[in-house]
Amino acid sequence: MTTVLRAHAEDQYAEELELLAKDDDRTRPPGWKLSPWAVTTYILGDGDRITPKYIGPRRIVEVAVATLATDRALLLLGVPGTAKTWLSEHLAAAISGDSTLLVQGTAGTAEEAVRYGWNYARLLAEGPSREALTPSPVMRAMAEGRLARVEELTRMPSDVQDALITVLSEKTLPIPELNEEVQAARGFNLIATANDRDRGVNDLSSALRRRFNTVVLPVPGTPEEEVDIVSRRVEQLGRSLELPEVPAGMEEIRRVVTVFRELRTGVTEDGRTKVKSPSGTLSTAEAISVITNGVALAAHFGDGVLRPSDVAAGIIGAVVQDPVSDRVVWREYLETVVREREDWRDFYRACRDAG
Fold it and tell me: How far, in Å, CA of 205 to CA of 4, rounded?
């Protein structure tokens, strides 16, 4: 048993990776732990011993994996909740065996996070040296021939983003203080993620964008696909968090997914009624959170069965981000759509009570 709340992908799925590596007789790019075919199988599953990590179009995963086998970096672009971070972690785990070489992009991310920093105690005592240098995750990935990950690239300041240009074009990281450079070992590449809703925050320069092959991750195409994703992830999270076992509650999962999809698209499932959309994203990831929280409520404070009252408060919390405008949107949807569905009466009452 491990005391870690969330194991890294390469640890959590070590048996599957080992199984694939054992049977993998296809060509592997330099520095890769698995062949591109085996990496894709690890991501999408094989219907038997390998569980799917990402549910979506196979071609998207194939393009992403093929990109990483070239000299171009990969940019995963999409709205919140489309599994960009999840996919980047599993790609790094399957290709490099290490998903931890990560730079988290924020407005306060400094250039040292992409290049290198200094141990100032040693720097003052001994002067500039390799021992006084603190490598960034990107620098370590270059030296070791692994994949580096940059999360929320467009949230980083533009000058920090541009520190990647030389790394991606020349595959070299200069260290002018030492009159040295770090050259990328075979197997090095970079996966970045960016949020569609962050356009205009810190847009990528044309020079940097040319260094990436962009793959757009779509929202789940059908309700059935989204229900499958949510149910799988809730089951995995339940095991990880050691929540008391609660029956699947597929009816409540379908209701949550239906509510999120209808509010997200602005029209009901049958296409007959237009509805207003709230300010939030109502992503698949948020649906997973709502159901997981509902499972915890049912297990610890309910009768062990997932019921509408267990998910109602979570739905309202996800929908009503703006207490004024979103509350109006939610009430209108509740009264004009949910109330009219005969088989949703218990759900309607639970939402009314929670609101």
Answer: 39
